[in-house]
């Protein structure tokens, strides 16, 4: 029997590709030279897509595949998949929640500690032989700082739990107050920003959260405030963030995600009050394997008529 055809939207791990190839025929979109040739040859045979948080499935791609039945996302952020179109067409969508929560939460704490304690600059201070000329400057403490979290979902809650160990009072903003939460809820972002010193973005990117962190929010946080973003770049108006950092209207930022990845504003590269990482929230061997296993398990479940493990649509 012919194997089912699956489209991969970008190169993913060797492990994932190997596991998929054991069960399915893989069409690798980055190896397709001609779009017309691709459509003629494969458009009626592709039944599934494996997408990730950067290379998703927009309406054009979905429309070009009339036999598409399922999209298995290798990311918990679904902003690059046209979920409305999927619902219209009855295409199932799965993601990989829970497999990555701890790694991303760990990275958020790492960015907080690094930027507030200026650890990258301190590292360079030692490497560049500057220590002999005098002690490194004083920084400020993380323990006890008031932390505001936007999006108290899986990752947001895991960040809050970790920061409780640092005696940080935690507050949050999301679309609704969580009835069982012990953290203080603010009904809007400005109030949250006005009442915290470290603002952590852990929400999904949607039409509503796009550029939610604008000049007003940044100014409410103020010149002693820090922004940490492990959610999605476009939740922040990046131009306003850069201006605020350059003008020192913000104390600093720790950023794993950017508005136009892999492009990073050149001004950020020259600033010593930012810590930058290249969207590595989930980049550990263990987590990437767990994510890959879930991507495959959802596809296998679908094509053997078993219930999906982590359905979104
Ligand atoms: P989740 O459990 O679904 O949480 C999403 C959170 O977003 C919820 O708390 C939700 O709160 C909040 N939210 C949604 N719309 C909102 C709005 N309009 N205003 C305020 N809050 C809103 O997802 P998760 O697993 O924690 O992941 C969160 C995000 O992290 C993902 O969507 C993804 O973009 C990002 N992520 C990044 C990395 C990385 O490598 N840096 C890795 C994985 C995920 P309410 O429902 O209460 O409003």
Automatic annotation (TrEMBL):
Keywords: NAD, NADP, Oxidoreductase. One of its GO terms (molecular function) is glyoxylate reductase (NADPH) activity. Transmembrane segments: none annotated. Residues 13-312 form the D-isomer specific 2-hydroxyacid dehydrogenase catalytic domain. InterPro entries: D-isomer_2-hydroxyacid_DH, D-isomer_2_OHA_DH_cat_dom, D-isomer_DH_CS1, D-isomer_DH_NAD-bd, NAD(P)-bd_dom_sf. SUPFAM superfamilies: Formate/glycerate dehydrogenase catalytic domain-like (SSF52283), NAD(P)-binding Rossmann-fold domains (SSF51735). Residues 110-281 form the D-isomer specific 2-hydroxyacid dehydrogenase NAD-binding domain. CDD domains: HPPR. The keyword Chaperone does not apply. PROSITE patterns: D_2_HYDROXYACID_DH_1. It holds the Pfam family 2-Hacid_dh. GO terms for cellular component: cytosol. Belongs to the D-isomer specific 2-hydroxyacid dehydrogenase family. This is Hydroxyphenylpyruvate reductase.
């Amino acid at each position: 029997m012919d194997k089912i055809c699956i489209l991969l939207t970008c190169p993913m791990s060797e492990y994932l590709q190997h596991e998929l190839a054991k069960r399915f025929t893989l069409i690798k979109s980055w190896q397709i030279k001609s779009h017309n040739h691709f459509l003629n040859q494969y458009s009626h045979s592709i039944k599934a897509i494996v997408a990730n948080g950067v290379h998703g499935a927009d309406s054009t791609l979905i429309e070009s595949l009339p036999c598409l039945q399922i999209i298995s996302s290798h990311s918990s952020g679904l902003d690059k998949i046209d979920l409305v179109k999927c619902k219209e067409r009855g295409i199932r969508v799965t993601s990989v929640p829970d497999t990555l929560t701890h790694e991303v939460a760990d990275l958020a704490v790492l960015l907080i500690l690094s930027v507030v304690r200026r650890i990258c600059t301190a590292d360079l201070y030692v490497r560049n032989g500057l220590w002999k000329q005098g002690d490194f400057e004083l920084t400020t403490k993380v323990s006890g700082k008031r932390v505001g979290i936007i999006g108290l979902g899986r990752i947001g809650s895991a960040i809050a739990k970790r920061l409780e160990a640092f005696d940080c009072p935690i507050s949050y903003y999301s679309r609704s107050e969580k009835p069982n939460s012990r953290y203080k809820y603010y009904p809007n972002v400005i109030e949250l920003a006005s009442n915290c010193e470290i603002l952590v973005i852990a929400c999904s990117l949607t039409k509503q959260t796009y550029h939610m962190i604008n000049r007003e929010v940044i100014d409410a946080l103020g010149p002693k405030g820090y922004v940490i973003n492990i959610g999605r770049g476009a939740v922040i108006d990046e131009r306003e963030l850069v201006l605020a950092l350059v003008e020192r209207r913000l104390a600093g930022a720790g950023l794993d995600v950017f508005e136009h990845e892999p492009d990073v504003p050149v001004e950020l590269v020259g600033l010593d009050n930012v810590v930058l990482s290249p969207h590595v929230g989930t980049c550990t061997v263990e987590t990437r394997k767990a994510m890959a296993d879930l991507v495959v398990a959802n596809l296998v479940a679908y094509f053997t008529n078993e219930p999906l493990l982590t359905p979104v649509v």
